[in-house]
Amino acid sequence: MNVHQSLTAARSVESLPVAPAPVANDAMVRFEAVSKVYPAYRDKPSVQALQDIDFAIPRGSITGVIGRSGAGKSSLVRLINGLEKPSSGRVVVDGRDVSALAGRELRLAQRSIGMIFQHFNLLSSRTAADNIALPLEIAGWSKADIAARVAELLELVGIADKYDRYPSELSGGQKQRIGIARALATRPNVLLSDEATSALDPQTTRSILDLLANINRELGVTIVLITHEMSVVRQLAKEVVVIDSGHIVERGHVAEIFTHPKHPVTQAFLSEVIGDSVPVSLASRLVPQPIVGGKAVIRLQILGTDAGDTIVARLARELSSDVAVLSARIDEIGGQHVGSLTLGVPGGEAAAIQAISYLTRQKFSAERLGYVA
Q1: Higher pLDDT, 331 or 165
Q2: Which residues contact 96 (CB under 8 A, 6 or more apart)?
Q3: pTM score, two decimals?
């Protein structure tokens, strides 16, 4: 995929058809039983890139689509912006069946879908302002309107002072801000971010994700994050879709997925981000059988702002014994507090069973990890 393919979507100057007024919580993007097969070519066999994809992206949301290389993420993007057609099923964007459009109608629909690229795809011969102006020139805007819109966008992305700088004079983060401004030039309703931060350092990544959050908040643009980095999903998205070998293997609210991952692929992604909440010094002492005078080690997951505030004290009262906090980790993910507490409960197996039973009744997810002296 390259910048010219995406920008030619803006060639026509006719107005988009007026869509019906959206209802609350409706879908901006909807996949309906979508499969994508790339046919055999020369000595290469056919490839099933996507199979039985069914999910919706809410209007105005930030949704992460995460998967390993080759999972089908790029095919998903190309179906949303109409650069590929599904082999079966429908892809509906803002009420239009993009998969059924062609020619001028497709180009008009594509104008409402912005694209941010991993490697920026800026034209080296154009200044920052001229790169942003390119889709507007193709769309037939007047010079005065282009100048006003470019100035507005440079201000929005925080680099108004780089107006006349060339890409070679800009840092990676500045180049990506230009890429974001260009993607927003024609006022799209959907913004596709295809691994947009994977070429950036961690500090710059955070600033770009903060910018995208602000754009979503201020402009109401629906953002789709295509990434292989769960840390990006954790910082920015509210919903997440996990894709593997062309199938959706898990999806839901980010906080729920982080606290209760069900599929091994999701669990592997999460282990790379949060690791094991049990300290190595504690994990090395765990044994499977109770120890006389020792403690049962129990881990519970916390979801919600105040969920874990009093649980240790309540558990201690329930057991009529002291409960030690051996380790704790709390994060804010998808607008919710999520975390993990590792507790030491005096007594043997009976005490561990009683503790887990009580925690389960209090709607916590708890598991016994073992015992320590």
Answers
A1: 165
A2: 19, 109
A3: 0.76
